[in-house]
């Protein structure tokens, strides 16, 4: 099968699979709604049908189920695109958004809000502080790693490791300082969940995601040139430092917005770009949009499993992604070792 055919089949398959998962997920729950009713309700919203006769089912779909499904797709898409961007910027197959401290910083902001009991923005207080914490931490990592107007990849990664360690210590201190209810809420937030999804949250994430994806696509050609190496890329006219700065800011904005509502969801940004790259190849003009769809599909499936594996319980979604991502990460390490002939 030729590469154009594989790419077309991948996009078509991911698009159809994501729509199917979204519809199935919207119908599954303690109050089951047939798939035909889910489709009928969707068609009614775009003016192509009479809608549902049961107002309770209609309300369940549009006030509870669809906000969660759409937020899962958005967060998964953001993490997939951010992972592809990070791996392209760093030239490292093991890079993901957490490398630059965005998740740990968001956790610090959210934990501070929970322990202090702040509510100056109402229901948006914890997400807003999570967003601010993730963004500020990422910018701090990037600023601390710069020397003489430049930042090296190794220095950036090591700075991220150090800042992540400090953030983890701050979170532990906040948990120690808070009461039992605050500790439980912080732990649940760190495990990741979409149980509190609402339409206002969706509308908050969507603009930042759209801007981030558009900018990522605009950077795709320069990322392909950067894959040749920093020196060849500079000779071809790429401003490597500006490219990395732009990419890191885009990742910080998108991921901070996503995890501020979902909590920490690991490994999606790591495994999705690699799975897509095996089919499409390394070109970022295809890799970025394909990672968007694949990330949305993966988190949609994970959220469906989180809601349905146990009766009357909502499993933290971060547990499922870690169970899948951990073995994949280990396999990737072994594969990298075999190909390179060692760990260097």
From TrEMBL:
Protein topology in the membrane: Multi-pass membrane protein
Transmembrane segments: 66-86, 98-121, 127-144, 156-176, 201-220, 241-274, 313-334
Keyword Lipid metabolism: no
Main location: membrane
Compartment(s) where it occurs, according to its Swiss-Prot or TrEMBL record: Cell membrane
InterPro entries in alphabetical order: ABC_BtuC-like, ABC_transptr_permease_BtuC
Keywords, sorted A to Z: Cell membrane, Membrane, Transmembrane, Transmembrane helix, Transport
Pfam families per the UniProt record, alphabetical: FecCD (PF01032)
Superkingdom, natural source: Bacteria
Entry similarity comment: Belongs to the binding-protein-dependent transport system permease family. FecCD subfamily.
Family annotation (PANTHER family): ABC TRANSPORTER PERMEASE PROTEIN MJ0876-RELATED, FERRIC ENTEROBACTIN TRANSPORT SYSTEM PERMEASE PROTEIN
Protein name, entry field: Iron ABC transporter permease
UniProt source species: Amycolatopsis heterodermiae
